[in-house]
Amino acid sequence: MTNDPPRQQTRTPESRTIRAVLAGNPNCGKTSIFNGLTGARQRVGNYPGVTVEKREGRWTEGSFQVQMRDLPGAYSLTSYSPEERVARDELLEGDYDVVVVVIDSTTIRRSLTFALQVLQTEANVVLCLNMADEARRSGQKIDTSKLGRLLGVPVVETAAHTGEGLDSLKAAILASSLQPRRAPQPEIAAVLEDTRTIIEQDDAAALHRSQRFAITIAGILDQVTVEAARPDSRASTTRIDTVLAHRWFGLPIFLGVMYAVFWLTFTLGEAPMGWIESGVNWLGEAIDTNWPGSPDSPLLSLLVDGIIGGVGGVLVFLPNIVLLFLGLSFLEDTGYLARAAYLMDRYLSRVGLHGKSFLPLVTGFGCSIPGIMATRTIENERDRLATMFVLPLMSCGARLPIWMLVIPALFAPALRAPMMWGIYLFGILLAMILALILRGTVLKGDPTPFVLEMPPYRLPTLRSVITRMAERSWMYLRKAGTVILGISIILWALTTYPRPDSFQVDEDIAAGAQLTEQEIDGRRSAERLQFSITGRVGTAIEPFFRPLGFDWRIVTASLGAFAAKEVFVSQMSIVYALGEEGAETDLQSKLRRDFSPRLGIALMIFMLVGTPCMATVAVVRRESGSWKWAWGQFFGLTALAYVLAMTAYAIGGLV
Amino acid sequence: MSDQTAASNLTPALEDYLETIYRLVAKSGFARVRDIAKARDVNPASVTPAMKRLDQLGLIDYQQREYVGLTTEGETAGRRIYARHQILTRFFNKFLGLPADVAERDACTTEHNLSAETVDQLVRLFEYMEVCPEGKDHLSRFRACSAVHDNVPECEHKCNSFTLITDASGTHRLTIADLEPGQRARIRQIESKGAVRQRLLDMGILPHVHIEVARVAPAGDPVWIKMQGYELALRMSEAKAVTVEPVTENSP
Fold it and tell me: Using a CB-CB distance cutoff of 8 angstroms, which residues of chain B are in contact with residue A4?
């Protein structure tokens, strides 16, 4: 190897930009290192395969600027999940000066395999032994300078979450970019050379070479390990797993945990929801009372009914969404979701999915978009497509407002939490059935291997959970501020214009009908809405939805749900604000007055199953690579929703 | 990896290099770096570090850079490695009746992992098979009974007794899937193919590695195994393809 010209040339001091990439196994704390170095705020998870996007950041070091790219986690350069392929292509063909290989010190034996594979590429490598504090606590001591001499690369110990060693890492990156890599010890060089082809091959020889790898790694570790980890270093994780991953109790506990998350979401969210609701109402009334112009001004209507009514109606559900995201982030960061995948894999594999489908599906409870993006960790194309297809059936955060509107309006307090749980469960069951059908028909094929690492439990730092929760909540708020604001305005316009010149009710009065002032106003509003574009479209297709029990107002609101599911709620509030002037002021009371429980259930089934939002369609198109899948999913699920909602409504009518 | 007995502590790669040099020297009296590279199918430049190392260990004479000679110690070591290779190749080829190329490849795969004792025992087995009358008998019976797993009447009885013997001696096929929670074992072989095997290898499921089954999931699948320093879950379908040998509690 010493005679081969190194691919990375020595950089002269004049070139002041250093390009570095960050590579390593999933779950080795790579993203924390990245955050620590660049100061960027990113997702840090404890489940293999959280980093899906390519992330970039930079920092300056003296007169140098270092640009760093965070590669997706990979166990090997030989494997072919889409994520690992990205990492492999970047490492083998990418344009960079230094590779930082991050290793989880607590699983150094396994992680060195990947490090050695990267060393074969002859790039300038800096080896970063992360989670060094945890390894130290377990009693493990590594002679880093000896390891560096053996491999011919700088070795730095870090603990990303406390910031330990990050300065040394920065210095090592800089130093490594300025000088060519030293030669490793001859014995290791010989093995590296001999196993270089491992990246390209998959034949009988690969096993042989892997074995040599193992022997080499054992040899390296023998030389550099000053003190081995105490055998009981995983004791606390093991103790927790005896309960949480228990053969019989594990699954009930898991279902209980999910139930608790939803229950907390529902209960703790109630008070702040009330505050936001009163705030929004107060604002609307304040503007209404202090309006300087005429009370019939279109601008006032736009402001109060359109903007405040629409956006406010969605904003009310922010506490629920924050709490749900908080729970999911916590479960993800502790490492519990890997156990969930283990517990669920048998059932998922029976319906043709994969234990790894689990994280995307659970993420789908937050939002389908990141869920669909997270399917990239699934190696097999068919598993991935099946997961993607059924993912919108996971009741997403945007649908939460719909449940929060309909359930309390129609069901007794004692029934609310079970009802909520039931909807989620219904979505899950339906997804399983659908996946089974898909894997038996259009996506027929062999199941893929399931080999998943069970990381040690780690108490997530408050910062990482809060950061993640804040990011997701911010996404929701931004959607409320942009897409939903825009759509609220458009839908307000569609529900307001064209305005009728005359009213039927006036003719009735002229004909001698006796009506109160209130009744006259109500009829006028209703007529106005029916005269509008939305009212006309809704009325036109209403007969089609009659078997589901939907009237033209629900149909009209459902039209808006294509933009984003939560728009349904704001649409309903506009439709009802314009159409009615009753004693009931808030939407829920109006629903309580107008809806039967069976209509509520049919409606919820339709909203759960049907019409994935336009963002979902776009992301499925991007991730599956074809419009066929995106629209197939949209129309397939909508047709299914129609049939199911109709059935539910019909059955409800018999009871 | 200390140097007190240089020849007995070589890495597999270095052993292969030494064997190659021994064969070249035996054939033409000398070995050139270029020939070594050609025989091993690697880049000549990459042979250099290995040569330097072998030189350091006093096994070869690597002064003139192009020509490589063997020291006395190196010749002994090379002969031993070569002999071992020959024995294995012959075993696979003549006794198991595998084609020459398969025998050659498998010999390459296994040779580095066999202890001197095992090789000695193998040699004794060959002698028994070839020299002793009963051994010859067993060998011919084994060859006659090639359809071990088929329902061939005249073979069935013998095969049954054969299976019983191997069961009793504990060498029948045992996989991770057969282990109970709490049981420990050492991995023997990964029998799956292609991407599945690659994934298993990447996750550290390699021959000789010690594992312990920690628990199984509610439906008995997947199985959760403990390895050195980390833990994995794998499906039964994968576990069934990894053969193991049980390890008693006191083993390392």
Answer: 43, 45-46
- CB-based contacts of B123: which residues, under 8 Å, 6+ apart? B87
The pLDDT tens digits for A571-585 are 787 677 654 445 456
d(CA B240, CA A450): 13
C-alpha R_g of chain A: 29
Q: Is residue B251 part of a domain?
A: no
pLDDT of A437 over the 70 cut: yes
Residues B10 and B125 in one domain: yes
Question: Which positions in chain A touch B3 (Cβ < 8 Å)?
Answer: none
- One domain, residues B58 and B87: yes
pLDDT of residue A157: 95
Chain A residues near residue B62 by CB distance under 8 angstroms: none
Interatomic CA distance for residues B167 and A635, integer angstroms: 59
pLDDT at A608: 94
Q: Please give the residue range of the domain that contains residue B204.
A: 176-246
Q: What percent of chain B has pLDDT over 90?
A: 8
The answer to whether residue A76 neighbours chain B at the CB level (below 8 Å) is yes
Query: Same domain for B62 and B112?
Result: yes
Backbone φ and ψ of A59, nearest 5°: -150, 165
B78 to chain A, closest Cα gap in Å: 18
Which residue, of B141, B172, B203, is where some domain finishes?
A: B172
The residue extents of the domains of chain A are 17-227, 253-440, 479-654
Q: Same domain for B195 and B162?
A: no
Structural contact between residues A81 and A378, judged by C-beta atoms closer than 8 angstroms: yes
Helix (H, G, I), strand (E, B) or coil at B143: helix
Q: What is the pLDDT of residues A306-343, one digit of tens each?
A: 788 777 766 777 787 788 778 877 887 788 888 988 98
A133-150 residue pLDDT tens: 988 888 889 999 889 888
Q: Say whether residue A194 is in contact with chain B using an 8 A CB cutoff.
A: yes
**Nearest residue on chain B to A1, alpha-carbon basis:** B46
A345 contacts B221? CB cut-off 8 A: yes
State whether B154 and B202 are in the same domain.
no
Contacts of A78 in chain B (CB under 8 A): 198, 202
Q: Which residue of A has its CA nearest to B237?
A: A449
Q: Which CATH architecture has domain A17-227?
A: 3-Layer(aba) Sandwich (3.40)
Is A158 a residue whose pLDDT tops 90?
yes
- Encode pLDDT of A359-413 as tens digits: 788 778 877 777 787 777 676 778 888 999 999 999 887 888 899 889 988 888 8
> Between A and B, how many residue pairs show a Cβ–Cβ distance under 8 A?
192
Per-residue model confidence as pLDDT tens digits over B91-111: 887 777 777 888 888 887 787
Joined together, the tokens standing for residue A325 give 């995201």
- In degrees and rounded to multiples of 5, residue B9 shows phi and psi of -115, 25
Residues of B in contact with A247 (CB under 8 A): 215-218
The total of structural domains in chain B comes to 3
The encoded tokens of residue A45 equal: 């998870």
Which of B3, B11, B54, B104 to mutate to test binding with chain A, by most A CBs within 10 Å of its CB? B11
